[in-house]
Write a structure and sequence with these properties.
The complex is a heterodimer of chains A (about 475) and B (about 110). Chain A has about 475 residues and is of the alpha+beta class. Chain A contains 15 helices and 18 strands. A seven-stranded antiparallel β-sheet of chain A has the order 15-12-14-13-17-18-16, with helices on both faces. Chain B has helices spanning about 5-15, 30-35, 40-55, 60-70, 75-80, 90-105. Chain B is globular and about 35 Å long. The chains are: A alpha+beta (about 475), B mainly alpha (about 110).
C-alpha cells in the first residue's frame, strides 16, 4: 500500500509537535538499524519516527495508527540482540526517549520511571537512596527501563538468586494498541495476589501495549563479597554449577565465567596476566556485611567441588574491578578482532556439560562459514552459556552474515529444545518464533496469536515480531 | 581501483568496525541537546555515512545537518575505545563530510545551498 509520508508527517505533527516528528530518510534509516550484523533493507525503514512526550500523546499516536492501519514499532534504545529493535515492516517508529523521568518515593517504598530512562541513569538516581536496580545488562549505559521490563530481563544476574525484574514491578501505566490508557498493579508494597494484568504485560515484548510508566519496589543495596576462581578448563566450572543446584546451595547473585580463550582475551584487555585456563567470578550478597562475608566463605568452601587451581575472596576493590570487567571486556575485545555471532543456551542444570559440548561442536562445524573459532562466556550460574562463533575478519558479505546468524540461531534452538531450556535474557519473539514452534505444541503459538489479537485486533504494535519476519 | 572507490572502500571498512552497541549515543552532546534524537549521535552519523556510501541515502538537508552538527568533541571515541573498539569516529565523520561535499559539487547540488 502506497502511503503519503508527507501526510503522515503532518498528522503526527499535530499530535506531538513538528519538532518531534522525523520523516527524512537518514533518521528513518538510523532508527531501523539495530545490533543485528546485516544491513537494513527497504522494508525495515519506517515512514516516520515519532517522539511523544506524554502518555496522552502516545495514546493519540496509537489511535491514529489504528485508524490509518499503520504499524507502530516501539523503540527504546535499539540494543536487543535478537532483532526485537528492527522494524519488520514499514510503519511508524515510536521512540520513548523523551519520556525518561525518574521519581523516587522513599516514603512509599518505590520509584517510578518513564520507559525511555536509561538504566545507568536510574541506577544513579536510586543509589542516592541506597537502593539497587535489579537489572544488569552489558548495555546498561544506554538500554532503557521500558525495554528491560518489556523483555523482563535481569540480564547477567542469576535468576535463582535475584529473580526477574517483573518480580519487583508493583504496577505499570500502559497504552493499549487501540489507544486506551490503563493502570495496573498497586501503589502498596503488597503485590496483588491472583489474576492481575501487570503479569501479562511485563515481558510482552511490545506486542500487547506500550509501557509508559514503570513502578518498582526499592530494593536495599546489599553488601557484596566477591570470589574469583581459576580452573583448568570450562568443564570444571560447569560441574561446579551443576553441583550447586544439585546440593541446593544458595547461589550467588552473579556467577560469570570466561572459557579458556575468552579468559586470555579478557584478562589481557584489563591489564592482568593471562590465566592458564578458564575463570569464574561470583558475587555473594547479603543485607549485612557479616552476612555477605559468611556466605562468601561458605561458597568458597563449596567450590572446591570443581577442583579449581586457585580460588579466593577478593577484598581489594581495584583488583576486583579489573577481574570483574574482564568478563565484559572479553566480549568487546573478541569483537574487535573480527566478527562474532552469539547464542544463548540455557539448559536444564543437570545437562549443563552436555549442552556446552553440543554447542561447541555445532559452532565449530558451522556450515554457513567454515572453520570459525569457538569462544564462550556468560552467566553460568543462571545458567546461560553464550556460545560464540568467531570469524577473524569484519569483511563478510551481507548475505553470508545473514546465513551465519540464521544457522547459529537454529543451533541454539535445537540445543535449548534438546536440553529443556528456553533462553532467559534476550527475549522470545522476533528471531525466536521458530524456536517456540519447535519447543511447544502448536497450541502454544496459537494461544500467543489469540492473545495478540485480543489486545491488538489490527496487529499494529511491533508487527512481524510474532510472525518471525526478518 | 579509482581514487573514489578506494576512498569509499576505506571508509566502509572503518565503519564496519562499529558493532552498533550504541554506547556512544548517550555521551554525545548533540544527542543530549536534542532530547535524544539518535540521528544526532555518533552512532547515527556513522549509519548515515554508511548508507550514503552504499547508495541508499542521497543528499538532503537532514543528512547534512546530521554530519555537520557533530562538535568533534571525541566523547564518543573515548567511550568506544574504552569498550575495546578502535574506531576513529570523529575522523570518519570528517571524511563523511568530505564525501558529502564532493557529491554535492559533482551533482551541482551545492547550488541548492
Amino acid at each position: 500500500m502506497q502511503m503519503d509520508i508527507k501526510r503522515i508527517h503532518k498528522d503526527l505533527s499535530k499530535i506531538v509537535g513538528t519538532e518531534n516528528v522525523f520523516s527524512d530518510k537518514p533518521t528513518a534509516v538510523v532508527y531501523a538499524k539495530d545490533v543485528m550484523p546485516y544491513d537494513v533493507e527497504e522494508h525495515n525503514i519506517p515512514y516516520a519516527v515519532v517522539r511523544p512526550g506524554s502518555t496522552a500523546e502516545i495514546s493519540r499516536v496509537l489511535c491514529y495508527a489504528n485508524d490509518q492501519q499503520i504499524p507502530v514499532h516501539i523503540h527504546g534504545s535499539g540494543t536487543s540482540l535478537v532483532g526485537l529493535a528492527r522494524p519488520k515492516t514499514k510503519g511508524i517508529v515510536l521512540d520513548t526517549a523523551r519520556m525518561a523521568d525518574v521519581v523516587v518515593y522513599p516514603d512509599r517504598g518505590y520509584f517510578e520511571a518513564g520507559p525511555g530512562a536509561h538504566l545507568a541513569k536510574v541506577r544513579k538516581e536510586l543509589s542516592a537512596y541506597k537502593a539497587m536496580l535489579p537489572i544488569f545488562p552489558g548495555s546498561e549505559l544506554v538500554a532503557t527501563i521500558g525495554g528491560s521490563i518489556a523483555v523482563n530481563t535481569s540480564a547477567h544476574a542469576v535468576d535463582a538468586s535475584l529473580g526477574k525484574p517483573g518480580d519487583y514491578v508493583l504496577g505499570l501505566e500502559v497504552v493499549m494498541p487501540t489507544g486506551e490508557i490503563v493502570e495496573t498493579g498497586t501503589e502498596s508494597m503488597r503485590k496483588p495476589a491472583g489474576i492481575e494484568l501487570t503479569k501479562f504485560l511485563v515481558g510482552s515484548e511490545g506486542l500487547l501495549c506500550v509501557i509508559t510508566k514503570v513502578r518498582m519496589r526499592l530494593i536495599p543495596l546489599p553488601y557484596f563479597e566477591n570470589i574469583v576462581a581459576y580452573y583448568r578448563c570450562t568443564e570444571d566450572i560447569l560441574k561446579t554449577v551443576m553441583e550447586m543446584y544439585k546440593e541446593c546451595i544458595s547461589p550467588p547473585m552473579f556467577f560469570e565465567y570466561l572459557d579458556e580463550k575468552s579468559a586470555k582475551v579478557g584478562f589481557k584487555a584489563v591489564g592482568l596476566s593471562e590465566p592458564v585456563g578458564a575463570v569464574a567470578m561470583m558475587s555473594m550478597h547479603s543485607w549485612s556485611k557479616a552476612g555477605s562475608e559468611e556466605k562468601a566463605k561458605k561458597f568458597l568452601e563449596f567450590i572446591s567441588v570443581g577442583q579449581p587451581i586457585e580460588a579466593k575472596i577478593v577484598k581489594d576493590k581495584a583488583e576486583w574491578e579489573k577481574i570483574w570487567s574482564s568478563r565484559a571486556e572479553a566480549g568487546n575485545y573478541v569483537y574487535r578482532l573480527g566478527s562474532t555471532f552469539g547464542s544463548e543456551v540455557t539448559p536444564r542444570v543437570d545437562k549443563l556439560q552436555e549442552a556446552f559440548r553440543d554447542a561447541k561442536a555445532a559452532i565449530l562445524n558451522l556450515q554457513s562459514y567454515k572453520n570459525p573459532e569457538f569462544y564462550s562466556f556468560g552467566h553460568i550460574g543462571a545458567p546461560t552459556i553464550h556460545a560464540y562463533a568467531f570469524i577473524p575478519t569484519k569483511e563478510i558479505p551481507n548475505d553470508i552474515k545473514k546465513a551465519i546468524v540464521k544457522e547459529v540461531r537454529e543451533i541454539t534452538e535445537d540445543i535449548n529444545v534438546k536440553y529443556g531450556g528456553c533462553g532467559g535474557e534476550w527475549g522470545l519473539t522476533a528471531q525466536r518464533i521458530s524456536f517456540l514452534k519447535k519447543k511447544y505444541p502448536p497450541a502454544y503459538y496459537q494461544l500467543l496469536v489469540k492473545l495478540k489479537q485480543a489486545f491488538d485486533p489490527n496487529n499494529i504494535l511491533n508487527r512481524g515480531n510474532l510472525e518471525g519476519w526478518v | 581501483m579509482s581514487g573514489d572507490n578506494a576512498y569509499r572502500t576505506t571508509l566502509l571498512k572503518e565503519i564496519a568496525k562499529c558493532r552498533a552497541c550504541r554506547f556512544c549515543v548517550d555521551v554525545c552532546p548533540t544527542y543530549q541537546a536534542s532530547a535524544g534524537v539518535e540521528t544526532l549521535s555518533s552512532f547515527g552519523r556513522l549509519q548515515v555515512i554508511k548508507y550514503l556510501l552504499i547508495g541508499d541515502l542521497e543528499f538532503d538537508d537532514s543528512l547534512s545537518y546530521a554530519l555537520y552538527s557533530c562538535l568533534q568533541c571525541k566523547r564518543c571515541e573515548n567511550i568506544c575505545k574504552s569498550k575495546g573498539q578502535q574506531l576513529e569516529i570523529c575522523q570518519i565523520i570528517q571524511l563523511g563530510r568530505n564525501l558529502l561535499s564532493r557529491q554535492l559539487i559533482e551533482k551541482r547540488n551545492n547550488e541548492k545551498l
